[in-house]
Structure formats: C-alpha cells, structure tokens
Amino acid sequence: MDAPITAHSFLNFLAYAGIGIGVLVLAALALVLITPHRELSLIREGNSAAATAFAGTLIGLALPLHSAISNSVSLIDAAIWGAVSVVVQAVAFLLARLVAPKLSQQITLNQTAAGIFSAGVSVSVGLINAAAMTP
C-alpha cells in the first residue's frame, strides 16, 4: 500500500507553500509601499476601512497564487506566474485610484465604503487573474 504522504511529497509541499507565502508577503509589502495611506498603522489604530481594503488585497493576491501553484510545472514557473499576478494586481490598484482618486483619503478617514470598494477591486481582479492562468 502506498503511503498517503511521502518524504518527497512533503518536501514539495514545503517548497510550494514557501514560494506561495513568500510571494504573498513580498507582494503585500510592495502594495503597501505604493499606497499613499499606511494600511498597517491604520489597522493597528482600529480603522475598519483599511482592514477591509487590506484583507481584500491579500485575498486578491492569494487567488492567482493558488492558480499559479496549481497549474505550474515547477517552482520557478510558480514564482514567475506569481510575480506576474502581483504586477496585474498593482496595475488594478493604480487604475482603481484613477477611478476613485480620493480612495486613499477615504480609507484613512475610515469610510467603510472605500475599504469595501478597494477590497472588491482586489478580489475581482484576483479572480480574473487566477482564471487566466490556465495550463
């Protein structure tokens, strides 16, 4: 009988999880740097609009990373497609700022609607991004 988990499969899990979490953390940091407001400080202060927007950012980044890992043929392939998804998410964020130029200010002022809109953009683009990553 085959073992459900082998040392090889467990090492693959660790490698792909490491790539996924690493890209997610780096991408989140990159997006934090391009936002005019300081999400993490606002979240620490209890700003629910910032928390909602940032949660949407994380989900929007994780969705295509899931697809990149699921459809990749190697760790490098997963990392490259993960990086591509980060660029797409950053462009979506910048476009959302064009559509709603006061978005950052509204999030800073804890206007929940702005946080929900920002999260919605991130998750929507993340879903499309993930669906586009087909083998």
UniProtKB/TrEMBL annotation:
It comes from the Bacteria. Belongs to the UPF0719 family. PANTHER family: UPF0719 INNER MEMBRANE PROTEIN YJFL. InterPro entries: DUF350. It holds the Pfam family DUF350. Keywords: Cell membrane, Membrane, Transmembrane, Transmembrane helix. It is a multi-pass membrane protein. GO terms for cellular component: plasma membrane. Its main location: membrane. This is Membrane protein with DUF350 domain. The keyword Membrane applies. The keyword Zinc-finger does not apply. It is found in: Cell membrane. The chain crosses the membrane at residues 13-34, 46-66, 78-100, 112-132. It comes from Lysobacter capsici AZ78.
